[in-house]
């Protein structure tokens, strides 16, 4: 009896085809789960689902794009940009990828790069008002007010009742000193949304510049009624009252502006002027002194090691909250695990010197001991040796690239030393690997 044998190459192709089909099915399942979780607001769960989809099919642009959106919703804009980069690399014709990447770049104050992305999105989808609006905002941040005005006008042409754009165009006209022209935009916003305090404040500010002081006060009264903590409106109303020689009323507004923002040197100046008019020259001089000193308070500051939002006390708090791994390992012949665990115990009893000596010995005996490098890095950071701590974190990550806690600790240390971008990218990687406290740090310190 004869047997038929298939060529090996045919068997391999069948097997490869089956495996590919299975991977695609898995990717589709994870992708759908990610979409579902995104819709329900579970962005951490969505991120993990899209990561699984990418693992099953690393060539699918929508998986990277949607993971980028999940990261952006977790305020991890640096991590989102990396995913948008990959999505665009795979599909350079998707306007939403450029639009979303531009938004995340804007959130990082990289407005020139954001402007380029918005322009590309407009090329691909010229009827989308959102891209024009976002490009207008970026141009405003770059003080390109005439270009911004054109973009906002185009947005309104495509979407006539777009309240944020009408307001933004009004503010842009103010920047161009077209105060009369701004009134129509602010008035249209008020017609569409009578509860928008900023529109009354904006129109009041323009009326102030046009010398219509009583009308300005009427608008600023409404702005303050709707937003009682708007220090700028109190200042502007005080200025309008000063112009109408209501110095007592103006002083009350300047007091409130200063209570809301203690560094409002213009309010100190205005209050000093009113005090002088009311005969309180000593008080006037004191306010003028404060106005002068506050205006120049930042001159001559010296550079510090911990520069930025993460100061030394903040760093200590974030680092000390990290839970070290406490899984027992089998004792090897070199007994490095014993040195390591004795170091952990010594550290908990504040015997830092003894703990460091034990960690040095553990690393000497086992140079691939990633946990020992990480723990020594934690001790170094605790003692103020942040650069040494970073070196140990680097070693730990070379040995274990998926060590999420190490990315977290290295991220907060780098941020504290002024490398905000590098620190936040480390926090992003930590979160991507599943260490959820990273997203709280990103929300607090990376935006």
From TrEMBL:
<feature type="repeat" description="TPR">
    <location>
        <begin position="231"/>
        <end position="264"/>
    </location>
</feature>
<dbReference type="Pfam" id="PF00515">
    <property type="entry name" value="TPR_1"/>
</dbReference>
<dbReference type="InterPro" id="IPR019734">
    <property type="entry name" value="TPR_rpt"/>
</dbReference>
<protein>
    <submittedName>
        <fullName>Tetratricopeptide repeat protein</fullName>
    </submittedName>
</protein>
<dbReference type="Pfam" id="PF13432">
    <property type="entry name" value="TPR_16"/>
</dbReference>
<dbReference type="Pfam" id="PF13181">
    <property type="entry name" value="TPR_8"/>
</dbReference>
<feature type="repeat" description="TPR">
    <location>
        <begin position="27"/>
        <end position="60"/>
    </location>
</feature>
<keyword id="KW-0677">Repeat</keyword>
<keyword id="KW-0732">Signal</keyword>
<feature type="repeat" description="TPR">
    <location>
        <begin position="370"/>
        <end position="403"/>
    </location>
</feature>
<dbReference type="InterPro" id="IPR050498">
    <property type="entry name" value="Ycf3"/>
</dbReference>
<keyword id="KW-0802">TPR repeat</keyword>
<feature type="repeat" description="TPR">
    <location>
        <begin position="61"/>
        <end position="94"/>
    </location>
</feature>
<feature type="repeat" description="TPR">
    <location>
        <begin position="95"/>
        <end position="128"/>
    </location>
</feature>
<feature type="signal peptide">
    <location>
        <begin position="1"/>
        <end position="23"/>
    </location>
</feature>
<feature type="repeat" description="TPR">
    <location>
        <begin position="197"/>
        <end position="230"/>
    </location>
</feature>
<feature type="repeat" description="TPR">
    <location>
        <begin position="129"/>
        <end position="162"/>
    </location>
</feature>
<dbReference type="GO" id="GO:0009279">
    <property type="term" value="C:cell outer membrane"/>
</dbReference>
<dbReference type="Pfam" id="PF13431">
    <property type="entry name" value="TPR_17"/>
</dbReference>
<dbReference type="GO" id="GO:0046813">
    <property type="term" value="P:receptor-mediated virion attachment to host cell"/>
</dbReference>
<feature type="repeat" description="TPR">
    <location>
        <begin position="163"/>
        <end position="196"/>
    </location>
</feature>
<dbReference type="InterPro" id="IPR011990">
    <property type="entry name" value="TPR-like_helical_dom_sf"/>
</dbReference>
